[in-house]
Design brief:
It contains 2 helices and no strands. It has about 160 residues and is mainly alpha-helical. It has one domain. Helix 1 packs across helix 2. The longest helix has about 130 residues.
Length: about 160
């Protein structure tokens, strides 16, 4: 094998040195600049993407802040409207309640008057019925005829007690 023969070492080392130098120059001049350029492009693209993401995040934060502000404003406005509505309905309910209470009070007074009138009529009817009953009882018990007037006077005197 010629590679292992000591006489061929010098030319093999020479060609090894020339091959490494050529590969080194080829890599240093052609391949590594291309790879470095790609790495630089990738780094720039990543930096641009991060800058754009930061810009979008800032826009999102601004939009969220605007949303929260408008939401708080809407809640405050809705609360104000609800309070106004409650106050208006409360006032309207109070007015209706006062009207109904007045109407009920008036009807109660009318009912009291009717009850008093009915009571008077009932008492008068009771006196009349009691007088007729007394007249019938006396006639049945003792067989004497009593006039309506005298039976009414007797009932009135007894009820007066």
């Amino acid at each position: 094998m010629p590679q292992l023969d000591i006489t061929f070492y010098a030319p093999q080392i020479f060609w090894l040195f020339i091959t490494f130098v050529a590969l080194y120059l080829l890599l240093a001049q052609v391949a590594l600049p291309r790879i470095g350029g790609m790495i630089e492009q990738r780094r720039d693209r990543i930096a641009d993407d991060l800058d754009e993401a930061a810009r979008f995040k800032a826009q999102t934060d601004d939009a969220i802040a605007a949303y929260e502000t408008s939401l708080a404003s809407a809640k405050a406005k809705a609360s104000g409207i609800a309070q106004e509505t409650r106050d208006a309905l409360g006032a309207e309910t109070d007015k209706e309640r006062i009207k109904v209470e007045a109407m009920l009070s008036e009807k109660a007074k009318e009912a009291e008057v009717r009850i008093a009138r009915t009571k008077q009529q009932a008492v008068a009817n009771i006196k009349e019925v009691a007088a007729e009953t007394a007249q019938a009882v006396v006639q049945k018990l003792i067989g004497a005829k009593v006039t309506k007037k005298s039976a009414g006077a007797s009932v009135t005197s007894v009820m007066g007690k």
